Amino acid sequence: MSQRGHRAAGRGAVFVEYGQVEMLRFTIIPVTPYQQNCSVLWCSRTKRAAVVDPGGDLERIKQLIDSQGLVVERILITHGHLDHAGGAAALAEQLAVPIEGPHPEDRFWIDMLPEQGRMMGFAGQAFTPQRWLEDGDTVDVGEMRLEVLHCPGHTPGHVVFFQPEWRLAAVGDVLFAGSIGRTDLPGGDHRALLHAIRTKLWPLGDDVRFIPGHGPMSTFGDERKSNPFVGEGSA
Fold first, then answer.
1. pLDDT of amino acid 7
2. Percent of the chain whose pLDDT exceeds 90
3. How many Å is the Cα radius of gyration of the chain?
4. What residues does 21 pair with on adjacent strands?
5. Is 31 exposed, middle or buried (0-12, 13-18, 19+ CB in 10 A)?
6. All residues at 6 or more sequence positions from 19 whose CB lies less than 8 Å from its CB, including other chains
7. Distance of alpha carbon 79 from its chain centroid, rounded?
8. Strands 209-212 and 168-172, how do they pair?
9. Among the residues of 21-69, which ranges form H helices?
């Protein structure tokens, strides 16, 4: 969730945004009562795909996969909060694919997914990813390669996925259009979050578009200039 909160979009629409940048294509699917932006990224040349943050509503995610004729290679997790990771184990079992991410510092959040589910009122299943991710790792999707950046603050093990050639990042709950991730939950660190945004995200370039965990897409340039929490002129 964002620092200022997020107004949920209507749950009638299955796919809220579709994008294409050369051979990288993506669709954003709002899932769970929190309208979390699950995204499906795929290589148009190979139809190989990754699902990022399948927090729930798995039938909607699989509908997109089937409609595009995709072969999912892996599930990627930015961090261990329920709305991002609650459905990962079930989807991995249904698709027979590995889970990669987040950073091991989020292990306690992943282990707590069932408890998070009981508190929030929708299912969460704990899992051990086939691969924990570290800063500097890479993940292949078809003929594309995503870079992994460890960006703690919202959670201690939060990671961001960045595709440098096509200038797209999936940032989870690190950064939003006009806001940043909340830091009042266990493991949150406001100072670390601001540092991660300024030292890990801004250097990637103003032209980078990003998929946030909630709400509309934006660019790093727009947020660097005007975001009231981390933009120019902010404390």
1. 33
2. 89
3. 16
4. 24
5. buried
6. 25, 26, 27, 168, 209, 217
7. 8
8. parallel
9. 58-67
Check whether 62 has a pLDDT greater than 80: yes
User: How far is residue 55's CA from residue 34's CA, in Å, rounded to a whole number?
Assistant: 10
Domain limits, the chain: 17-226
> H-helix or E-strand containing 94?
helix 88-95
Cβ atoms 164, 147 nearer than 8 A = yes
Tokens read off for 52: 């990022």
Mean pLDDT across the stretch 181-186?
97
Question: Which helix (H) or strand (E) is 19 found in, with range?
Answer: strand 17-21
* Residue at token pair 């006009």: 178
Six token digits for residue 199: 């030292």
> What is the CATH topology of the domain spanning 17-226?
Metallo-beta-lactamase; Chain A (3.60.15)
For the chain, the residue count is 235
